[in-house]
Structures are given as structure tokens and as C-alpha cells.
Amino acid sequence: MSRTEDHGGERPGNGGSLAHRVPDLGALELLLAVARVGSLGRAARELGITQPAASSRIRSMERQLGVALVDRSPRGSRLTDAGALVTDWARRIVEAAEAFDAGAQALRDRRDSRLRVAASMTIAEYLLPGWLVALRAQRPDTAVSLLAGNSTAVAERLLAGEADLGFVEGLTVPGGLDSAVIAHDRLVVVTAPSHPWARRRRPLAAEELAATPLVLREEGSGTRQVLDAALGGLARPLIELSSTTAVKAAAVGGAGPAVLSELAVGEELGMRRLVRIPVQSVALARDLRAVWPTGHRPAGPARDLLSLTRG
Amino acid sequence: MSRTEDHGGERPGNGGSLAHRVPDLGALELLLAVARVGSLGRAARELGITQPAASSRIRSMERQLGVALVDRSPRGSRLTDAGALVTDWARRIVEAAEAFDAGAQALRDRRDSRLRVAASMTIAEYLLPGWLVALRAQRPDTAVSLLAGNSTAVAERLLAGEADLGFVEGLTVPGGLDSAVIAHDRLVVVTAPSHPWARRRRPLAAEELAATPLVLREEGSGTRQVLDAALGGLARPLIELSSTTAVKAAAVGGAGPAVLSELAVGEELGMRRLVRIPVQSVALARDLRAVWPTGHRPAGPARDLLSLTRG
DNA sequence: CCTGCTCATAAGCCCAGCTTATGCAACGCG
DNA sequence: CGCGTTGCATAAGCTGGGCTTATGAGCAGG
């Protein structure tokens, strides 16, 4: 009985879900603390728990992973070689969690925040959380609120005085707003590694791209606009989906070639879940801009955030 | 009472540790499942739990974050706007956890694995987990074991027949091994954003770099070797630390400029915790190579993995 | 030799998350 | 129009993981 039965989503051969095989955030934070301070007890104090709790938690993490992580000695604890590696991998999870937390907090703080940001989806998804983490490190007491929407919505909020700083990714800047380019983005053509295009040697020609049915965002999205403009309104949809995520999932699943922001596919390219297909002579670049009401040069917290965004 | 007291490591103004503010992995996986299948009940079934469990878990996640994540209706559940954003951020955590899991499994499987990999630290830390995730997606039943060490150790394992495929990042290929370049890496000079160099307009000259005390890895490390070679053995240490992580931490903390692999600082640059300082006329590039015993061209699982590594 | 640091073990508490058993609302179909 | 199906919510009860306090044992240094 129990629930060992393999339902739909479970890949074969993995005993239970990720959550059962990966230590929880608390344990990972503890491990990082141990690595930093070199002692279970002091790490425990740093996290506000007792030494036995830390000891037991590290031990159960070692049991779970099947690997010794720390070398205990009467004079402290050091990471084993495997432990150092695990700790580095753990740090990635914790950093992602920090970004999540910063973003979530901004989503919640809505009311009494000192800095109200409006951002387009792509920027809110991929860039903003990192900026918020950095901002929090610099100015821990700046409460930020975030509102995500398309370029028009961002402009409205700014002009209505309901937001202090905006971020957009269109080809044009909405009227009534000043802007500064903070980064560049590019649309890229991607396929699953199994797709024939992944084995091409020569870059794709614009006509080939225009002639091929693609997995795309819906008409009206920023991404789609740029693509249509670049191809002269010719983009041929295989499927139209309403979120970047859905498009990625379809592409990973082998539905067909997709066109997506470079920002959106970084992770997937790194993990080789998607392969980037070079394209020739198609202008797929676009600017990412910070925007604010004409004249109202960002000051205070808005200026702090803005200065973080241009590295 | 309880433990609200702010001990050393806690930044002010954050109520408790990350783990208390970020939903656990199980909840995040559940959220992703709900987003995918559009129903609490079906998501629950997919994860092998009951519908009330899923319902309660999503609800408590919403309470924790202070944001409504899903719109429930008698015909299913769809993400709210905020929910879509949160789900995207959650996906990053889950992906990091998948990489962690793939790595940890390789660390454990030591014995009966079909593919034994030996890799240098930098590659094991930053690249390999992603490759393993991709490999698992392609060939779910390939058990991989991982041994991390320096170039010499990698070569030894391969030549002793204790590893099937190696990855090194040196300037030279150890004797007795064939190799293929799989990627390029570059050392970069980084500082905390507060460092004077961060506000420089002109690239750093080689002499300035050589004349400045730097935060460095210990002598003998791959990174250090490349730097010394590039500067003509002149690198002047401010501190010498024994792990990439420690170097990063020192640099982030403002100890001084550091020289690190591009791979190692990607995250920090994105979050603006570190700033990259352009350098002129210093050859800091290096190749990342797959290696194997001369003649034993990789086959089977080794070949699968190898083909994943050249995107 | 005692004091102070480290970690380990034991016994007990508490809450988060699970289960089963319900109820209620909306849709589609004979 | 009632019936079955699908989807979510609520209630009551169990269990285990993680916490606490209390204690012991190994090693270093004044």
C-alpha cells in the first residue's frame, strides 16, 4: 500500500519527489552556516537554535544524502570534500530562495512601501528579484512593492502616480515617460536537443524561420511583437501560448522550435534542455529600459534601485 | 520568549530565517504541478497525496506569502497574476534543487554506477550538476558517480581505469589523455560594488593588476596558475583562500579585488553583489576540456554525457 | 587539574502535514 | 430535472520530524 504507485508526473526510478531527496531550506542554511563558521554549535547559535538541534539536523542530512558532509573534531567541524561540493550546490538553492523571498515580499507589501515598482513580466520574472536582493543588502529597510504587467499598464501606473519606477522591454517607450536603457535582451530561437535543427551546422536564414511553424507567445505580447517586426509580420504559429513558461515547456517537450527571450532560456540552455539555434540577419535585439514620468528624475530609493540595475 | 532574539548572523528586520518565509520544496513542487495541470486535485494525485492535503498546503502557502496564488473555481484552479510570478520564481528554486539532487546522487552512487566521472572542482561545482540533470532526462537509468579533484587526480583516476570520463580546466592536458574542448572559460577581476575600481571608466592595465594585492585562491590551484601565467608570475596576494567560495565571500565583503572564473561569479554579477572590472591585454582565457585515456574513445553513457556538454 | 570548547545522546513536547470522511457547488447529460 | 462527475473546503485524528533541556564524553590550554 502506501503510495509507491507511479502516477503520471513521476519519472521512473526516482524514489519519491524531490522534496524527499533534497534537504529542506533550513538544513541547507545550516550547512552553509557550518561551512562559514566552522562549528556546529556556533552555526546553531547563529540560526537561533540549539547545538543538539544542529547536530541532529546535519546528521540526518548526511543520512538522507548518503554522504559524510562534515568532519567533526573536538576543536570544530570542517567540511569534507564531498561536503564542500554539496555546500556549493546548496548555495544555489538558497540564493534562488532569497530571490523568491525578495520577490514575494514585494508582492505582499503593496500598501506602505517606500518604493513602488512596476515592471513588465519578463523583467519581473528574471531580473527584478535579483535586484531586490541586492537592494535589500544595501538598504535593508527599503520596503518595495511590485506590480507586474505589460508596457501600457506600467506607463499607466507611473503616470497615475501609483508607481515610482518602471521597467519595460518594448521597442518603443510609452509617451510621457523618460527612460534609460539598463540592459539589452535578444530573442533566440531554441529547440529541444532532439530536434533536427539542433544538429545544423549553418545558421538559420530568416526565410526558413518565417516559413516554419513556431511555438510562440500570443499576439500582443512583447516577445511576439519584436519577432513579428523582425520578420515583417510573418511569424507562423504552430501553437500560441500565454506564458513564457508554457512556451518553454512546449519547446523542451519537443513540440517544435520556439522563440524566446535570452533571459528566459539561460537556465535551460545551461542544462542542455534546450539548444540555441543561430539565426542569420534577423534583428531580434531589444532594449530593456527603466522608465519614469517625464521630469520626475528618480530620487531616494528609486535612485538606489536604478543604480543597481546598470552593472 | 521563544527564539525571536536576533543573534549574530541575522540581518535586521527579517522575521526569522529564509526557511520560515519561503515555502518548502514540497509546496513549491505542488504549486508547479497546479500551474501545469490546472487543478488542485489532479496536482495532488500527480504528487501522490490527497486532494485535501494539496488544498491545505496551497492555502497555507498563500497565508505564508500573504498573496493569493490560485483562483479556485468549481471547474478547476488557475494561477492569479501574482501566482504566475511566484510560480516562475519557485521554478528557479526547484531547478536548483534538481541540480543538487543530481549531484548528490552522483556523490553517493560511488560503487555500482555505469558511468564514473572525474571532474575538476570548478566544473563539478558549476557545470556538472546541470549536465547530470540533462542526462537523467535523456537516459533516466544511467547511474553516475562523481569524483572531484584537481587535474592530476582526474588524470590518475582515468589512467587507473577508475573513471570513464574526466573534465579538466587547466592550460595543459595531462599526459596519456586525449581531450576535446567543450567550453571556454575566462578569469575575471571582480570587486564589491563599493570598491573604487567599480567606478572606473577605463579598463585596468595589466601592471595595475599585478601591482595590486588581490584576494586569490592558493598557489597550485588551476585559477591561480592561469593568473600567474598571464601576469608572468607576479600576482600579489592580499589573502590566499582555499576555495572559490571563500574568495567570493571575501570579495563580496569588500576585502579587495578578486580574480575568479567567470563561471563562479555569474550569479553574483547578476545580483550586483560583485562588479566585473574590465582588464586590458591580459590573457585570462582558458579552455574547459573533456578528457579520456588515449585511444579509449568515450562510448555508451560516457558518450551520451559528452555529447550533452558541447552545446 | 580544572575550565572551556567541541560534539553526541536521551527523553519529552509540539506542530505541520498527512489521512479519511464528509459536504457543497457547478457543469453536462440522459 | 435529477444524477453522476469533477473540483474545492472543512473537520477530526494520527504521526513524525524537529525542537528543547539535561547530561556526558573527548581534547586543549592556563
From TrEMBL, chains A, B:
It comes from the Bacteria. Keywords: DNA-binding, Transcription, Transcription regulation. The keyword Transcription regulation applies. Residues 23-80 form the HTH lysR-type domain. Gene3D superfamilies: Periplasmic binding protein-like II, Winged helix-like DNA-binding domain superfamily/Winged helix DNA-binding domain. The keyword DNA-binding applies. Belongs to the LysR transcriptional regulatory family. This is LysR family transcriptional regulator.
